[in-house]
TrEMBL record:
It comes from the Eukaryota. GO terms for cellular component: intracellular cyclic nucleotide activated cation channel complex; non-motile cilium membrane. The lineage of its organism: Eukaryota, Metazoa, Chordata, Craniata, Vertebrata. It is a multi-pass membrane protein. It comes from Marmota monax. This is Cyclic nucleotide-gated channel alpha-4. It catalyses: Na(+)(in) = Na(+)(out); Li(+)(in) = Li(+)(out); NH4(+)(in) = NH4(+)(out); Cs(+)(in) = Cs(+)(out).
Length: 575
């Protein structure tokens, strides 16, 4: 093989694959991965928060399980270290957009107090074990600085759980347990410092049978702390100053804890009542109204049963008010996910635009009818249509007993009455009596809401009218002649309207021409007047004539006056 062929072979050969280093992804702080990591961090934080103080105050616990504590300690330290790495790969929002630039994320994280606390919580204080021995767990107290992650995990869980009130109560009970646990550990440590069995207040002497066991020591201390912090009493009186100080501190802590518990429970109960008031109508006002107006007992019983049905079966009648704080688009998506399958069953709404159905879903009003209650009666003006979500309704005769048909879930009625179809023989009036057999849940769509939505979709309106016309033809309730006459009348009316529009346009054109001519004439007259003014200004005015006129006027007045006086002095003619 020649050297040229070798070169060509070398050039044509594919390049060797380069080893790419996988990069850790950036976590969304509101995503699932970050949420589950926070829940994972709950365990090492709770371990350090509960176990370290217990090991420090109960020496037997520290000495008996030393190897297990080493494994758990350094496992929690490893999770702490991984948590710092996760923090360096957790994005943040800037102007509503998630920042995924790791350089900016790291720069932002290292400037926060959280970074300092996280570093301080990982300071290897365990190295002092080499000099002081491995039985001093208090050297790991800096691990408590990671407690904010515990609170963050609880906050995220509270917003995600379907039972927030139950979670709040559970969280409160956990806090109470931690406080009593710490207090019991401090009580046992104080008893050991003062001397076991020295008086009735401290822990009994472990030399007594049964009190030397570790389980008994912890349970006795926990029980004693519970009695103090719950202010139940029945505790021995303190005998020393240290014991008095401990009791005073516990009493103050008990008062604060009692106030916290009462406030938290009141908040939970208030939230539960607020949620019930938002989901279900307030029946107390209706009861009071009926009592003031002396409504008969039978009708009052029906109203109370209706409210009871809503409460027991968790039925909601004010979905619009519940979702009103959501953005419009998000509210539409929630309503579509809940009700779109029900609306798409209606024949006249099939094959309609998806955007039209989404707007119609927001207009659906849930209604619940009691047993024996009429949804509509024959001859009523149809202003809404109904879709059966749950329950059974009967088409009955005028006597209310004879049943012609039974309508079940998924069916609908009254859809023709909300569409103005030409030639409809029923005249948009109900043609049957519909009665609820049991408790029935319906969706109501009013004519006004449908008209408001269809005003933006003229093609969909035409399609729906055509489908309604087909349904009326099948039911023999469409007068073709009346429809043709109405169509002809409508066409004639439209033709007249077009003629009137044309005539109005002609009049507007003529009026515009007259206005233009008037404006032109006005401009010409104004120009002529201005020209005459300039011409009159150029005419000569003799000054002597002006002076003569000015002098002559008083002279004439004098002669006149003299003449007047002369005429007065002149004697009259002979008599």
């Amino acid at each position: 093989m020649s050297q040229d062929s070798k070169v060509k072979t070398t050039e044509s050969s594919p390049p060797a694959p380069s080893k790419t280093r996988k990069k850790l992804p950036v976590l969304d702080p509101s995503g699932d991965y970050y949420y589950w990591w926070l829940n994972t961090m709950v365990f090492p934080v709770m371990y350090n928060l509960i176990i370290i103080v217990c090991r420090a105050c109960f020496p037997d616990l520290q000495h008996g399980y030393l190897l297990a504590w080493f494994v758990l300690d350094y496992t929690s330290d490893l999770l702490y270290l991984l948590d710092i790495i996760v923090r360096f790969h957790t994005g943040f929002l800037e102007q509503g957009i998630l920042v995924v630039d790791k350089g900016r994320i790291a720069s932002r994280y290292v400037r926060t107090w959280s970074f300092l606390f996280d570093l301080a919580s990982l300071i290897p204080t365990d190295a002092v074990y080499v000099q002081l021995g491995p039985h001093i767990p208090t050297l790991r107290l800096n691990r408590f600085l990671r407690v904010p992650r515990l609170f963050e995990a609880f906050d995220r869980t509270e917003t995600r759980t379907a039972y927030p009130n139950a979670f709040r109560i559970s969280k409160l009970m956990l806090y109470i347990f931690v406080v009593i646990h710490w207090n019991s550990c401090l009580y046992f440590a104080l008893s050991r410092y003062l001397g076991f069995g020295r008086d009735a207040w401290v822990y009994p002497d472990p030399a007594r049978p049964g009190f030397e066991r570790l389980r008994r020591q912890y349970l006795y201390s926990f029980y004693f702390s519970t009695l103090i912090l719950t202010t139940v009493g029945d505790t021995p009186l303190p005998a020393r100053e240290e014991e008095y100080l401990f009791m005073v501190g516990d009493f103050l802590l008990a008062v604060m804890g009692f106030a916290t518990i009462m406030g938290s429970m009141s908040s939970v109960i208030y939230n539960m009542n607020t949620a019930d008031a938002a989901f279900y109508p307030d029946h107390a006002l209706v009861k009071k109204y009926m009592k003031l107006h002396h409504v008969n007992r039978r009708l009052e019983r029906r109203v109370i049963d209706w409210y009871q049905h809503l409460q027991i079966n968790k039925k909601m009648t004010n979905e619009v008010a519940i979702l009103q704080h959501l953005p419009e688009r998000l509210r539409a998506e929630v309503a579509v996910s809940v009700h779109l399958s029900t609306l798409s069953r209606v024949q006249i709404f099939q094959n309609c635009e998806a955007s039209l159905l989404e707007e119609l879903v927001l207009k659906l009003q849930p209604q619940t009818y009691s047993p024996g209650e009429y949804v509509c009666r024959k001859g009523d003006i149809g202003r809404e249509m109904y879709i059966i979500r749950e329950g059974q309704l009967a088409v009955v005769a005028d006597d209310g007993v004879t049943q012609y048909a039974v309508l079940g879930a998924g069916l609908y009625f009254g859809e023709i009455s909300i569409i103005n179809i030409k030639g409809n023989m029923s005249g948009n009036r109900r043609t049957a009596n519909i009665k609820s057999l049991g408790y029935s849940d319906l969706f109501c769509l009013s004519k006004e809401d449908l008209r408001e939505v269809l005003s933006e979709y003229p093609q969909a309106q035409a399609v729906m009218e055509e489908k309604g016309r087909e349904i009326l033809l099948k039911l023999n309730k469409l007068d073709v002649n009346a429809e043709a006459a109405e169509i002809a009348l409508q066409e004639a009316t439209e033709s007249r309207l077009r003629n009137l529009d044309q005539q109005l346009d002609d009049l507007q054109t003529k009026f515009a021409r007259l206005l233009a001519e008037l404006e032109s004439s006005a401009l010409k007259i104004a120009y002529r007047i201005e020209r005459l003014e300039w011409q009159t200004r150029e005419w000569p005015m003799p000054e002597d004539l002006t002076e003569a006129d000015d002098e002559g006027e008083p002279g004439e007045g004098t002669s006149k006056d003299r003449g007047g006086r002369a005429s007065q002095e002149r004697p009259s003619g002979p008599e």
